Amino acid sequence: MNLPFRLAVAAVAVVVAVPVAPRAVFAAQNPAVQNPAAPPSEPAGASPEHRSFPAPTNLQVLPKDLTGEQVHKIMEQWEGDLGSGCRTCHAVDPKKVGPNGRPRLNFADDSKEEKKTARLMYRMTDKINTDYVSMVPNSGQSVTCGTCHRGHLGPEPFVPAKHEEHGPVPAAPNATPNAAPAAALPTSGQ
Ligand code: HEC
Ligand code: HEC
Questions:
Q1: pLDDT digits (tens, 9 = 90+) for 74-110
Q2: What ligand 2 atom has the least distance to the C-alpha of 153?
Q3: For residue 82, what are the contacts with CB-CB under 8 A and spacing of at least 6?
Q4: Rounded distance between C-alpha atoms, residue 3 and residue 30, angstroms
Q5: Are the CB atoms for 13 and 139 separated by under 8 Å?
Q6: Integer Cα distance of 10 and 25 in angstroms
Q7: Domain map of the chain by residue range?
Q8: Closest residue by CA, ligand 1 atom 27
Q9: pTM for the structure as a whole
Q10: Which end of the chain has fewer CB atoms < 10 Å from its terminal CB, N or C?
């Protein structure tokens, strides 16, 4: 599967009249990677230990030529989109202890279920954008993890606003006024 190419196909429809290089297109769908073509530069004063990200060794869904820094930016984006930490998806390596005394994470390890689910989710999101969202006339948006997750690991169920035209919802016998809307839900067990 040529993933960068498929990302390019998706974004051609949204980036109008701009010569599209696959890298630029990947950046458009991954806002965390602002300028993937720029040579890595160290901000003045940053400690090299803290800023260096090893090249990835086990990418199966992201483009394999991403640098460690680019992968890190995408990971921070996912962290925010899902309201989850690195440990949600990455297993600890008990043999490697960091300077703070806590075990480091083994990022290339695939043992956590959440990491496998995240790969499935990345493929799904890519397909949604490539096959559907980019077909919307004048499409200018793409679906991200945050579109569904909105800062939660498990997307919250959407509860539509009540229709006023059906009249007031009858209160359950023992309900307090504040509990009335929840009592009307079939899942409330009342
Ligand atoms: C929602 C799950 C999830 C979260 C949260 C997450 N990651 Fe990842 N991470 C993944 C997946 C999935 C991959 C593999 C991507 C692929 O196969 O192309 C990965 C790959 C990586 C890699 C590359 C490993 C290698 O050698 O191939 C690094 C480094 C990494 N993550 C760091 C982080 C850091 C740092 C954080 C926290 C800021 C983080 N991740 C948060 C799911 C997650
Ligand atoms: C179209 C909506 C949608 C998008 C986009 C989406 N997800 Fe999800 N995701 C879901 C739903 C729904 C579930 C819950 C599935 C279930 O439990 O049956 C879920 C579950 C997950 C889980 C498992 C959570 C758990 O409790 O173990 C992870 C991890 C995850 N998504 C990561 C991602 C990542 C990373 C992205 C972006 C690359 C993403 N998702 C994009 C809808 C979405």
A1: 999 999 999 999 999 999 998 999 899 989 999 999 9
A2: 24
A3: 88, 145, 146, 149, 151, 152, 153
A4: 13
A5: yes
A6: 8
A7: 20-35+60-136
A8: 58
A9: 0.76
A10: N
